[in-house]
# Entry
Amino acid sequence: MLGIPVAAGVFFAIGLTLSPELAGLAMAFSSLSVVTSSVLLNKAKISTNVSSTTA
# Structure
């Protein structure tokens, strides 16, 4: 969660910046985590036994 303010430049005044190489690496890991999560959600067995009440 600290990466978002650092990437936005909030801490630029105190000298805490993110190099372009690390920013690219962070973006790659972010994309990888999104793809992994979507694949795991697609494979999950979710029960659809929901009892709906209609009035």
About this structure: Helices lie at 3-8, 20-43. DSSP finds two helices and no strands in the chain. Residues 3-33 form one domain. Residues 20-43 form the longest helix (24 residues).
